[in-house]
Amino acid sequence: MRFAGKTVLVTGSAKGQGAEEVRRFAAEGASVVVADVLDDEGEAMAKGIGDAARYVHLDVTSEEDWTALVASLDALHVLVNNAGVLGPFTPLFKSDVGAFRRTLDINLVGTFLGHKHAGRKISQSGGGAIVNISSISGMWGTPYAAAYTASKWAIRGLTKAAAVELGRNGIRVNSVHPGGVKTDMTAAMGDDGSTDWYKRLPVPRIGTVDDIAGAVLFLASDEAAYITGSELVIDGGTLAGDLSLIPPAP
Ligand SMILES: NC(=O)c1ccc[n+]([C@@H]2O[C@H](COP(=O)([O-])OP(=O)(O)OC[C@H]3O[C@@H](n4cnc5c(N)ncnc54)[C@H](O)[C@@H]3O)[C@@H](O)[C@H]2O)c1
Question: N or C: which end of the chain has fewer CB within 10 A?
Answer without folding.
Answer: C
